[in-house]
Amino acid sequence: MTNTPLSPRPLSHLAAERRRVMSAAQLRAHGVPAAEVGAHCRPGGAWRQLLPGVYLLHPGAPTSEERLHAALLYADRRPQPSDAMVTGLAALALYRFAAAPPLLSLDRVDVLVPRTRRLRSTGYVRIVRAQEMPNPVEVTGVPVAPVARALADAVAQVDDALLVRRLLTEAVRGGHCEPAAVVRELNRLRLLNRPHVVDAVDSLLAEGRALAEDRLYELVRVHDLPEPLWNVDLRLPGGPHLGGVDAYWPDQAVAVELDTRSPRQDDGDAWSECTRKREHLERLGITVIHITPRKLRDAVEQQAVVVRTALMAAGDRAPAAYVVVLPR
């Protein structure tokens, strides 16, 4: 007598589904008892167990999508997943990072869960815990950690200095996120004491600075603003150095400064110095506009209006003190 696998009649309506992965709880909800699940998962059966309490409802290897779906079901084994999300290299692959390995080649899928969840890494799933869970981003129907968090989780597991540098550089060049957001997450995970990460971050910040400068040049060109003096130092005649600015319109006494301070260190001293510099320049009658790289990326038209308004208002202000402008 042969053991013929039982036909999954309660699940026949799922035959057309792209993903045929279900948890034990979902199967029970469809009227499939544990004994029948076990019968389907016998050697040569129609199903197989991918992870504890998670089953693949067809023979053969799972697709990359099914592996991800199974990982999320394992991390939150209820009828519907809620607070778990894919992170690390798997998330970067979903974001289509060229430097990230293909999904099917990954030995591990990192899943981010709240710190209070009682879960262990198992099989190909590595559980990553978060003190505060970020809001997930849906990518191809999968809840995924935001790029900066996913990147930090990937870096935590990667010892290859070249790969770390490539991932961080792609995050900025590809417009996925700003350097400050990446460095904040790396700092939160205490990864900035690793020499290869520090080296990659230095390159990242330089990359971010250069990209922000390019966007500032484009803002002036595209919105037909008067050409400023670029990257100059300001001094009082025969007096102290007032500081450098990224763009300066001497006739209107308007300066633009890119706020690309590194969040690697305590920002207190850097912020205090920035504030003192701005207040000193404004006491001299110079209008200082601070622009972050993120604003240049996401709200460039609004920033162009801010700069144009400051330039137009110059005639209504008292004349500024004379300052010496030097190349920086």
Description:
The protein is an alpha+beta fold and 328 residues long. It has two domains: 16-157, no CATH class; 215-327, VSR Endonuclease (Endonuclease, Chain A, 3-Layer(aba) Sandwich). The protein has eleven helices and 13 strands. It has helices spanning 24-29, 34-40, 64-75, 88-94, 147-157, 161-173, 179-188, 195-222, 267-283, 293-298, 300-312, and strands at residues 21-23, 48-51, 54-56, 85-87, 109-114, 125-130, 137-139, 142-144, 229-235, 241-249, 254-258, 287-291, 324-327. A five-stranded mixed beta sheet has the order 12-11-10-9-13, sandwiched between helices. A three-stranded antiparallel beta sheet has the order 1-3-2. A three-stranded mixed beta sheet has the order 4-5-6. Strand 10 and strand 11 (254-258) form a beta hairpin. The protein is elongated, with a radius of gyration of 27 Å. The model is unreliable at 1-9 and 14-18 (pLDDT under 50).
